[in-house]
Amino acid sequence: MGIITHNTHVKRTKIVDALAKTVFGEEIDVKGWVRTHRSSKAVDFIALNDGSTIKNIQIVVDPSKFDAEMLKQITTGACIHATGMLVESQGAGQTCEIQADTLEVYGTCGADYPMQKKGQSFEYMRQHAHMRLRTNTFGAIMRIRHNMAIAIHTYFHEHGYFYFHTPLITASDCEGAGNMFQVTTKNLYNLKKDAEGKIDYSDDFFGQQTSLTVSGQLEGELGATALGAIYTFGPTFRAENSNTPRHLAEFWMIEPEIAFMDQEELMDLEEDFIKYCVRWALTNCKDDLEFLNKMIDKGLLERLEGVLKENFVRLPYTEGIKILQKAKKNGKEFEFPCDWGDDLASEHERYLVEEHFKKPVIMTDYPTAIKSFYMKQNEATAEGGSVGYKGCVAPGPTMQGTDVLFPQIGEIMGGSVREESYGKLMGEIERRKMDTTHLWWYLDTRKYGSCPHAGFGLGFERLILFVTGMQNIRDVIPFPRTPNNAEF
Q1: pLDDT per residue over 37-65, tens digit each?
Q2: Please, are residues 15 and 34 in contact by the beta-carbon 8 Å criterion?
Q3: Which residues have C-beta within 8 Å of that of residue 133, sequence separation ≥ 6?
Q4: Model pTM?
Q5: How far apart, in whole angstroms, are the C-alpha atoms of residue 426 and residue 34?
Q6: Strand locations in 44-196, DSSP E?
Q7: Distance of CA 420 to CAs 5, 317, 330, Å?
Q8: CA dist 53 to 20, 89, 143, 283, Å?
Q9: Which pLDDT belongs to residue 4?
Q10: What does the DSSP assignment read for 376-391?
Q11: What is the rounded distance in angstroms from the CA atom of residue 45 to the CA atom of residue 286?
Q12: Alpha-carbon gap, residue 106 to 78, rounded angstroms
């Protein structure tokens, strides 16, 4: 007795497909990793998982038919190959099981396997990110992550958008989007400098200073002015020393840009798009969401379904500030100030969504001073303020921004109508004293056939945070990049 040779006429069946079978009595071939192995004198039970589903299939083993030493090697984490008869299960919670005819151990797994124990903290698992993917929780998260990527591509494809690839290496910084990681082939120990002591990049690979992109938006606008409607979906990089549950140094962004779209249409798109993604998750990730709802966040499914039931509130920033100040006056404590002109903190955003409205909010018409140069400004009033969405009068200049605020997250999506007038755009650039050396190509879009257009940016990991109910953004990406952490 020992390892019994394969039946070469039976092809491997994924466990997700095996569990869906309703015809029993056929021979089946499965491969995967052992979740548990329970032994007794009469029978052994092996719970096997191959990553195709959150559910395990049970392998029932008659220990008298197999080598005892080989069975000892089948421990948690071991990789095995099993064939046998698929039969209707007698146990609760499962429809079928396999009565083993053959077993083969592909890879053993010793007692030092880091995912051996149950109940490990997420912080512990981050230290073993190369192995945490094999756990139930992270398997569920990664399958949902995949499905959200498919949903995004499907949505935009079905709505006539073109997938547009923007560069990862750039000489522009999308002004104010964040600190950047430099890209260079220069010898950092012997940097060439000019007469003023500044680094001379003429001998570098690109002949100028370049960095990893913080956003594909500016290049995306070029695509929109040629193709009408495009979207980007790729990695972006921020060199910010932020050790928070909401920040990563490397993350993925979805950034559609659309010609001839106004503010109202942009908000319609934002709401429809995110509801589509949530609906896709509820339809295609049922088992994984039920697991996460049970083990991680017991309000997850209710919160996801709630997003689909409600129309998002559309709230001018000025009105939002009034609500926050009233709450503060009535005893609500905020750590950060919330006066007109302040950039709202996550606590303010979550108060509006979770406590005041109890539904998602699209906040519009932010003060121009706290937003980017390319955003379209609202109509000015004689008093120096502006008139924004639904006639909301603000005490200062505002722009046509549209930030989507979600429960648990705060801001999940940020967008705006872009300023299409070359004169107005240059006026704002000059007011901010910006260097346009590397923006000449962007300004050309306003010189030659300029058109009204709009777009938004959605952090993919923030979407996954909301859909999974996880609390830390480092736990929804396979290998998080954060300050002092670039392992794996």
Answers
A1: 999 879 999 999 999 999 999 999 999 99
A2: no
A3: 139, 142, 478
A4: 0.93
A5: 63
A6: 44-49, 57-61, 79-88, 96-107, 162-163, 169-170, 182-183
A7: 70, 23, 43
A8: 11, 18, 8, 15
A9: 46
A10: PBPEEPTTS-EE-GGG
A11: 26
A12: 8
Going 278 to 280 to 283 to 287, the CA torsion angle's sign is: negative
Winning range, highest mean pLDDT, from 168-182, 184-198, 410-424? 410-424
Residue type present at position 204: D
The answer to whether 189 and 455 are in contact (CB under 8 A) is no
The per-residue pLDDT for range 290-329, each reduced to its tens digit, is: 999 999 999 999 999 999 999 999 999 999 999 999 999 9
In whole angstroms, what is the distance from residue 476 CA to residue 138 CA?
A: 8
Signed CA dihedral, 362, 368, 370, 373: sign only: positive
Q: Strand 386-387: give its sheet, edge to edge.
A: 379-380, 386-387, 393-394
Residues 218 and 253 sit within 8 Å (Cβ to Cβ): no
> pLDDT digit string (tens) for 126-155?
999 999 999 999 999 999 999 999 999 999
Q: Residue 221: pLDDT above 60?
A: yes
Of 89-103, 226-240, 357-371, 392-406, least confident by mean pLDDT is 89-103
What SS3 class is residue 188?
coil
- E strands present in 260-375: 313-316, 361-364
Strands (E), 72-151: 79-88, 96-107
| Residue 196 CB-density burial (10 A; 0-12 exposed, 13-18 middle, 19+ buried) | exposed
Q: What is the gyration radius of the CA atoms in the chain, in angstroms?
A: 27
Enter the tokens of residue 200.
Answer: 């001379």
Structure tokens at 370: 């706290």
Q: What is the pLDDT of residues 155-190, one digit of tens each?
A: 999 999 999 999 999 988 765 556 899 999 999 998
Using an 8 Å Cβ cutoff, are 59 and 91 in contact? no
Give the model's pLDDT for residue 119: 79
Q: How many CA atoms lie within 13 A of 229 on its CB side?
A: 11
| Mean pLDDT over each residue of the chain, to the nearest integer | 93
Contact 432, 402 (CB under 8 A): no
The pair of three-digit structure tokens given for residue 358, joined into one six-digit string: 């109890």
Q: Looking at this protein, which amino acid is placed at residue 147? A: N
Contacts of 80 (CB under 8 A, 6+ apart): 31, 32, 33, 34, 46, 48, 74, 103, 104, 105, 106
| Tokens representing residue 251 in the block | 């993350």
Tell me the Ramachandran region of residue 84: left when phi exceeds 0, alpha when psi lies from -120 to 50, beta otherwise: left
